């Protein structure tokens, strides 16, 4: 059905449908009203309650797609004028959805708590369900009750974000809804939805950047605006925090990239709190990914920022960050292989705003330059001194045990235990390889054993020993488990990396390598002095090399210039191709957006058409069901047959009527059978009954008569006694009233006299008023009669005057007609009898026939085409229309034309007898200077042509000018 025009009627009708338990119909009514074109002119004061009620019904029925379409339509209506109205609707939607989720959660919890019997065993159904499914009862309850509403709430957030995106007027509201969506994911631990939400926000940002470059955009999101960019930055920082709380480290890293992209585009300085959260989150991400180098670099950036604002930093904050910074640097392995992939390292360095890839040495130098030892905790400072300044493998355990005991008790340092232990083990084994050639395995295990949580098993220590030799290539070992010994083999090549390691004693291989290098240098210096040919050959070779270099210099220069020119041409061509690709991509994006918009509009039209068809189908079905139900209720009310009201889907109205008729026929047949049986035995049985009852009726009649007589006597006695009692009581009352009768009569006489005096006074006043009213009414009636008589006299005089004028006008018209008829007769007599040759003489009247002797009785050919002449027999009509003719001339003030269509004959201004000559052209004024004065002339009385239908049509037809003949 079409939407109701009045908003009040829409709401009233929707409430009626809801009260009739038809919320779907009410929702459809409100939905059609919102999408209707009529609502564009409705004030927001009336439209907003409709939309709010629409949102309530959509939430109750969980219609996410319908509410999305409604919000899109409402956005188009209110965004240009009233953003707060849209915000109120959005808040209403999200609040209602949140309440539904909360109620569902409470209901699920109540179902779990309200168990019928806590001591009862599980039912067979529960046992079977627990066998085939790993879910608990509470999980299944949550999935049945809570999950549908969680899904609806998530769809509501997505729909609202899709409605609010790409509009500069809705940026603040968009940011608020994004924050609520983040809190939804965090509150209900919806990690999958959080990933989708992050992807959705990235798509929105990308589309906003693309659409801002397109022309003719209404309120586009301007990413160059500092306030807009700050809103996006705040949103991404909050996204980063939620990702860390949900421990979605991959999504957190992608959020860091989003933040860095916005930071590079921002022209406004970023808040220190946001940057601190940024670097701290990066440090946590790198710690989870075991990237110790960039973990320390992130703490370095964080420490640098806090160090420069240390005077305003909270107490203890600088010590905490400095301790983290130095401890993370100490956890970087000596042989760091995390910077093998250069592109990845440069990418991570860019995220940290570093100009180069960090190293352990650079980070340590940065820490010392910023006086980090001045602010760190004492145990961290002592750890630095032991590992970096006073490292000794044999004294390492003794020095580190008290430090590890303190560090192991701090919960915040637990993530640094394993990387720090690996660094200590690597340094220990490296130094032992420089001190010992062969040592006992038990001694190494004893030196590498530390208190918890830094303790390792014997197997783990051996594993670290072997893995360290394989990873760093700084030493080679051979373990003899039978003898319980470890042999450090000599390394013949410089394959190890001694970065960060102190060399306590040079090995024999190192000494041999140094001596061989010195011997080679000495031999190269002595050889030219021993053999002169070596010197001359070296000089000639040098000269040849110089000459060849000079000859090839020009060629190389020319090749370089040609390559440079070619590179410039290729660069220009590549730039041109890039511009063409960008233009093509922009055009493709514009076409795609236009196609998407067209597809979206077509989709909306198709959906609207489908909804309309579905609505009509539902209405028809509802009407049929209602008729069917009413018929079934009527049948049940009559009691003819019993129709099951729950199974009416498979029964139509015709079937119900046929069932009713069949049942009535069966009942009628049964009734006729019973009546036939009764009629057969009625006569004899009834006669026997009455014969037996006759004696009983006589005895009963006598008994009833005696009872009635006794009752009558008793009633009579009671009436007499009550009458005597009343008479005695009335006698007593009469005696009492007789004593006051005189005073009462006297009082009533006074009252009556006063009332009569008042009556006479009021009657005299009313008589006087009535006489005055009668006199006034009489005068008014006389005046009205005089006015009516005067009006009647004036009307009679006016009618008489108009009748005289009409008679005079008709008389003049008759005279003019007689004159015109005489003129036509005279012309007919004066014209030649024979028909003129059409080729020799042309007439402006075309093929019109000349009037003969009887021309007065025939209509005269008119130069006005097919216009019919006025009948002479009707004096009331006039050839001049409503114009009043002048008595002296029927032509008015018109002057004759110098040129005549009748040749060179000049008509005389007067006819026979001095009377003015009649003209068949009425009072039309001919135009001078034209060969045909009747070309543009119109008939004098075209309106009266219909009244001359009885007159024959002239045979000449329409007028044709000479050029057309």
From TrEMBL:
Protein origin, superkingdom: Eukaryota
Annotated localization: Cytoplasm
Any one cellular-component term (Gene Ontology): multi-eIF complex
Coiled-coil portions: 661-722
Biased composition (Polar residues): 875-891
Compositional bias of kind Low complexity: 942-957
Biological process terms in GO annotation: formation of cytoplasmic translation initiation complex; translation reinitiation
Molecular function (Gene Ontology), one example: mRNA binding
Keywords attached to this entry: Coiled coil, Cytoplasm, Initiation factor, Protein biosynthesis, RNA-binding
Chief localisation class: cytoplasm
Stretches for region Disordered: 564-598, 798-965
InterPro entries assigned: EIF3A, eIF3a_PCI_TPR-like, PCI_dom
Compositional bias (Basic and acidic residues): 798-830
Domain PCI: 318-493
Role, per record: RNA-binding component of the eukaryotic translation initiation factor 3 (eIF-3) complex, which is involved in protein synthesis of a specialized repertoire of mRNAs and, together with other initiation factors, stimulates binding of mRNA and methionyl-tRNAi to the 40S ribosome. The eIF-3 complex specifically targets and initiates translation of a subset of mRNAs involved in cell proliferation.
Family stated for the protein in its record: Belongs to the eIF-3 subunit A family.
Cross-referenced PANTHER family: EUKARYOTIC TRANSLATION INITIATION FACTOR 3 SUBUNIT A, EUKARYOTIC TRANSLATION INITIATION FACTOR 3, THETA SUBUNIT
Quaternary structure annotation from Swiss-Prot or TrEMBL: Component of the eukaryotic translation initiation factor 3 (eIF-3) complex.
Protein name: Eukaryotic translation initiation factor 3 subunit A
Organism expressing this protein natively: Wickerhamiella sorbophila
Gene assigned in the entry: TIF32
């Amino acid at each position: 059905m079409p939407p109701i025009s009045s908003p009040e009627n829409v709401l009233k009708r929707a409430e009626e449908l809801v009260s009739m338990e038809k919320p779907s119909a009410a929702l459809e009514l409100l939905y059609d009203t919102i999408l209707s074109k009529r609502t564009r002119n409705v004030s927001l004061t009336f439209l907003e309650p409709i939309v709010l009620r629409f949102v309530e019904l959509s939430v109750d029925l969980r219609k996410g797609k319908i509410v999305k379409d409604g919000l899109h339509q409402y956005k188009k209506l209110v965004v240009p004028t009233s953003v707060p109205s849209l915000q109120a609707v959005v808040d209403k939607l999200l609040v209602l959805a949140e309440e539904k989720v909360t109620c569902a959660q409470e209901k699920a919890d109540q179902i779990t708590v309200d168990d019928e019997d806590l001591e009862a065993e599980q039912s067979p159904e529960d046992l079977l369900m627990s066998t085939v499914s790993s879910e608990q009862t509470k999980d299944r309850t949550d999935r049945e009750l809570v999950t549908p509403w969680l899904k609806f709430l998530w769809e509501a957030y997505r729909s609202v974000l899709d409605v609010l995106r790409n509009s500069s007027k809705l940026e603040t509201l968009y940011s608020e809804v994004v924050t609520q969506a983040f809190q939804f994911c965090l509150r209900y631990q919806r990690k999958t939805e959080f990933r989708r939400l992050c992807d959705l926000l990235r798509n929105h940002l990308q589309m906003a950047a693309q659409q801002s470059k397109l022309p003719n955009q209404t309120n586009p999101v301007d990413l160059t605006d500092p306030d807009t960019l700050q809103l996006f930055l705040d949103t991404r920082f909050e996204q980063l925090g939620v990702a860390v709380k949900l421990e979605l480290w991959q999504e957190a890293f992608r959020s860091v990239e989003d933040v860095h992209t916005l930071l590079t585009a921002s022209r406004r300085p970023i808040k220190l709190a946001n940057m601190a959260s940024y670097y701290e989150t990066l440090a946590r991400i790198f710690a989870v990914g075991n990237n110790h180098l960039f973990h320390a670099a992130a703490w370095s950036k964080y420490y640098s920022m806090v160090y420069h604002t240390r005077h305003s930093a909270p107490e203890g904050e600088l010590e905490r960050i400095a301790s983290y910074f130095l401890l993370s640097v100490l956890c970087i392995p000596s042989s760091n292989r995390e910077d093998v992939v250069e592109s990845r390292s440069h990418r991570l360095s860019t995220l940290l705003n570093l100009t180069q890839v960090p190293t352990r040495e650079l980070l340590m130098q940065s820490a010392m330059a910023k006086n980090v030892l001045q602010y760190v905790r004492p145990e961290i400072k002592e750890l630095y001194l032991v590992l970096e300044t006073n490292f000794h493998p044999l004294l390492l355990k003794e020095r580190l045990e008290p430090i590890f005991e303190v560090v192991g008790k701090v919960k915040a340092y637990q993530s640094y235990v394993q990387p720090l232990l690996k660094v200590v083990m690597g340094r220990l084994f490296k130094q032992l390889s420089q001190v010992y050639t062969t040592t006992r395995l038990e001694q190494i295990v004893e030196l590498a054993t530390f208190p918890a949580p830094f303790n390792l098993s014997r197997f783990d220590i051996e594993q670290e020993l072997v893995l360290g030799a394989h990873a760093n290539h700084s030493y080679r070992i051979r373990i003899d488990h039978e003898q319980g010994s470890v042999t450090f083999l000599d390394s013949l090549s410089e394959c190890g990396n001694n970065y960060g390691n102190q060399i306590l004693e040079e090995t024999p291989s190192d000494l041999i390598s140094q001596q061989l290098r010195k011997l080679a240098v000495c031999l190269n210096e002595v050889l030219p002095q021993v053999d002169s040919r070596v010197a001359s050959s070296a000089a000639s070779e040098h000269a040849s090399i110089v000459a060849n270099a000079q000859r090839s210099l020009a060629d190389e220069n020319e090749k370089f210039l040609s390559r440079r020119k070619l590179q410039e041409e290729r660069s220009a061509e590549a730039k041109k191709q890039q511009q063409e690709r960008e233009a093509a991509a922009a055009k493709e994006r514009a076409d795609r957006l236009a196609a998407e918009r067209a597809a979206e509009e077509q989709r909306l039209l198709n959906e609207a058409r489908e909804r309309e068809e579905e609505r009509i189908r539902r209405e028809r079905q509802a009407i049929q069901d209602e008729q069917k139900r009413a018929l079934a209720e009527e049948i049940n009310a009559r009691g003819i047959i019993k129709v099951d009201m729950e199974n009416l889907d498979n029964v139509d109205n015709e079937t119900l009527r046929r069932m009713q008729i069949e049942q009535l026929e069966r009942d009628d047949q049964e009734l006729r059978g019973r009546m036939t049986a009764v009629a057969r035995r009625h006569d004899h049985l009834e006669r026997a009954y009455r014969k037996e009852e006759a004696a009983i009726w006589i005895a009963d009649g006598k008994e009833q008569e005696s009872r009635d007589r006794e009752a009558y006597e008793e009633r009579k006695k009671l009436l007499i006694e009550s009458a005597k009692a009343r008479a005695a009581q009335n006698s007593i009352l009469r005696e009492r009233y007789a004593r006051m009768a005189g005073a009462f009569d006297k009082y009533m006489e006074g009252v009556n006299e006063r009332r009569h005096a008042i009556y006479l006074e009021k009657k005299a006043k009313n008589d006087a008023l009535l006489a005055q009213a009668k006199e006034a009414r009489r005068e008014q009636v006389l005046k009205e009669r005089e006015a009516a008589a005067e009006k009647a006299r004036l009307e009679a005089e006016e009618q008489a005057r108009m009748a005289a004028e009409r008679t005079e006008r008709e008389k003049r018209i008759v005279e003019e007609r007689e004159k015109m008829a005489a003129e036509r007769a005279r012309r007919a007599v004066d014209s030649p009898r024979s028909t003129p040759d059409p080729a020799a003489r042309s007439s402006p009247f075309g093929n019109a026939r000349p009037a003969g002797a009887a021309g007065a009785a025939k209509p005269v050919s008119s130069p006005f085409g097919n216009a019919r002449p006025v009948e002479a027999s009707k004096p009331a009509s006039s050839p001049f229309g409503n114009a009043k003719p002048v008595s002296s001339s029927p032509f008015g003030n018109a002057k004759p034309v110098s040129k005549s269509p009748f040749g060179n004959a000049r008509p005389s201004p007067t006819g026979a007898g001095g009377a003015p000559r009649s003209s068949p052209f009425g009072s039309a004024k001919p135009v001078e200077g034209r060969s045909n004065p009747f070309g543009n002339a119109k008939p004098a009385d075209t309106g009266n042509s219909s009244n001359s239908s009885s007159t024959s049509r002239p045979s000449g037809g329409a007028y044709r000018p000479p050029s057309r003949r």
